[in-house]
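Morning!

This is the sequence you dropped in the shared folder:
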Amino acid sequence: MKTSRVISIIMAMLALTEALYAADAPAKPNILLITTDQQHAGMLSCTGNPWVKTPALDRLAANGMRFERAYCANPVCVPSRFSMFSGLMPSAIGLGGNGMLEQPLPEAVAKNTMGTVFRRAGYRTAYGGKVHLPGTRGGTVKEGHAGIENYGFEEYLTADERDDLSAACVRFLQQKHERPFLLVASFINPHDICGIAKKVKLRTGKPADISEQEFIAKHCPTLPVNSGIPENEPDLLDASLFQGAHKDRGEKRHGYRDDDWRVYRWHYARLVEDVDRQIGLVLDALEKSGLADNTWVVFTSDHGDMDGAHRMGHKMVPYEEAIRVPFLIAGNGVVKKGAVERKHLVSTGIDLIPTLCDFAGLAIPRELPGKSVRGLTEGGAVTDWRDTLVVESGIACTVLMPRYKYTLFYGGKQREQLIDLEKDPGEMKNLAVDPVFQSQLEEGRRQLTQWYKARGMVLPKGVEKGMPHHDG
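The structure's back. C-alpha cells below.
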C-alpha cells in the first residue's frame, strides 16, 4: 500500500477518534511546545549570561525546571526537527543533513509522529511557524498546510515565523477549547544570524553619538573563553566548513578579526532577545486565557550556534555550543520551581514525544527509543536513566558519557576526538592523541557502537567504516 494512502487512512481514523472523544476531553492537560531555531543552551539570562536578557524564558525557567545537559539529536535543522517530531534518531531514515523534504514519510514513522499520537488520543493538534521537516512537500500535502499534516497536525495556524506567529498563537489561546490541545509555536530566530554574519557589520542598535569602535569596546560581548582553535582538532572539522554553499563558515573562522566576532555575538544576542519578546506574548496570552493551570509548557531549540567559540559561527559541528540546547519544562507537576537539573543526559530529539505523552497521560509508543523526563521534574529518584547519549551529525557521531565525550569523524587523518568535559568544558584539548587516555578512548568507541546495538538501531553510515577498532 502506498504511503500516501496509509497516511490518508490514518487521518480518517484520527478524525473519527476526535468526534468520539469530544464529550470526554476537559480532564487531560494541554501541551504548549515552543521552539526556536539555533539558540544554544547558554543564551538565557537565567544561565548567568550577562550579554543577553530573556525575561520571558527566565520566567518560564523560574516556574519550572531547566535541564543543563540537554542535547539535540543533530546540530542541523531538518534532522534535528525530524527527531523531535518523530521520536527517532535521524539515522533511522538515513538523514544526516538538510534534505529529504520531498520524500514521503515511511509508514512506520508516520504512525507515531507527535501530532498523530496526540490526535489519536483526541487532542486538537495545531502548529504554527517554521516546518522544515522530511516528508512535508508532496505526497498528501494540502495547499497552504506546508505538509505538517503528515505529522498529525490538523491545523496549520500560519507560515509566519515571527510576530504574526505570536499573534496567531494568541488568537488560538483566546478561543474556547472543547478538547485538550497540543499547540506548537515554531519560531525561526535567532537563526537570522546566518544572514547577518555573511558580512559582519553593525546594522542596527548603535547610538549615533559614539563611534563603531567605541560601541564594540563598550557594548559588544567579549570573546568566549574558548575562542581559540583546539589543540589536535580533527582535520575534517575544519575542512567541512568550506564545503557546499556555506563556505563562508570557513572564511569566517580564518578571516574574522576579534572585533568581527564581537559584532557577531552582539547581533546574535539581539536576535535571541527579539524571539524572547515574541515568546513572551504567547506566555502572557496563556496566563490570561485561564488555561495555564492545566497546561504544560515546554521550550527548546532545534540546535545551537557556535557563537564565536573556536572561531566558529553557525552549527553542524559536534562542539557543545552547537549541540547543547535550552530545555525548559513548566507545569503544576514540577516539584521544585526554578530547579536546574545538571546530572542526567537528555535528548530533546528522542525524549520529547515520550515526555509529552507522559505529561498527558498517554501511552508512549513502544517503537520509540527515548525516555520521559517526567520523573526528573517530580523530584523522585530515577534509577533507570541512561549513562550515555548519542548525537549525530553529517560529519561525525558523538557519544556523551558522564565525564568524557567521544566523537568519531567520517573522514580525515585524525578521525577521533576525546574531551574531558569535567576538566575541559570549553573543549580546547583533544585527548585522543594522548596514550595516557587510551582506555578512555577505547571506552568511547565501545559506548558509541553499543548505544545503537542496545536499542536495535542501525549504526549511521561512516561509524562502522571509520571505527579504528571496536569490541562492543
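Headline: Residues 22-26, 138-143 have pLDDT under 50 and may be disordered.

More detail when I'm at my desk.
O.
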